[in-house]
Amino acid sequence: MYAFQFERATDAANAVARLKADGEARFLAGGQSLLAAMKLRLAAPSMLVDVSRIPGMADIRVDGNTLTIGAAARHADVAANADVQRLIPALATLAGDIGDRQVRAMGTIGGSLANNDPAADYPAGVLGLNGTVVTDRRNIDADSFFRGLYETALEPDELITAVRFPVPERAGYVKFRNPASHFALVGVMVARTGGGVRVAVTGAGDSVFRCQPLEQALSASFTAAAARAVKVAPSGLNADLHGSAEYRAHLIPVLTGRAVEIALG
């Protein structure tokens, strides 16, 4: 490790001001990705601005038919929250299966979304549930937020403060995980709402994406059989030592079918 400054932000405005003043500074939430990158010298921020203890940023609340989760809410807290379990149990399941116990105790939803790891769980949850990412200056819909490999719509000094989820009629999340890292080899969030069906896939591409053939099939028939009958093309999917593109293409409809079964109870 090398020398850097550390500051604990008292509010969002204070945190953003520090990054505006120093272009090499970075926000620190749970640190599960950033600190590992720093140890490997893949990142070298001049300052870490801790946003994890900003008052209210870890709150989870319900406003009508909307579930709002503060950006500093830790995975374990989301998984254990009674409102999340009651309104969007698929999201509680997703959060409870992220990484290991240490990662769930420290990692935050805001940090996960800002990092946008191509095999992370929360991007699938936000995209599949049609969430809205709330920052210190605007609201960003899920379809506009995720832009590519570790790339989002965030400005360099923009801070995620919360995520809003409309409560779906039904939803389910399933992932085939790497046994060592617990990242998703492929993960699928399926959600049915009054506006239709959304299917978000993580782990299979450079970034989370919606699978239109599966959405169309499930809009016509919201059944596991309809999902499993869809053939997903392997072109453009990831291929590595853990699985070929063809293998991931096969997993997507299989896991979607399982997610539908969970959604239907």
Give a structural overview.
With 265 residues, the chain is an alpha+beta fold. Among the domains are: 1-53, Uridine Diphospho-n-acetylenolpyruvylglucosamine Reductase, domain 2 (2-Layer Sandwich), CATH 3.30.43.10; 170-264, Enolase-like, domain 1. It has helices spanning 12-21, 34-39, 75-80, 82-87, 89-96, 101-106, 109-115, 122-128, 142-145, 212-220, 224-228, 245-264, and strands at 5-8, 25-28, 47-50, 60-63, 66-70, 132-135, 139-141, 146-148, 151-152, 160-166, 170-177, 184-193, 196-202, 209-210. The strands form four sheets. Strands 4-5-10-6-7 form a five-stranded antiparallel sheet. Strands 11-12-13-14 form a four-stranded antiparallel sheet, sandwiched between helices. Helix 2 links the parallel strand 2 (25-28) and strand 3 (47-50). The longest helix is centred in the last third of the chain and has 20 residues, at 245-264. The chain is globular, with a radius of gyration of 18 Å. It starts with a strand and ends with a helix.
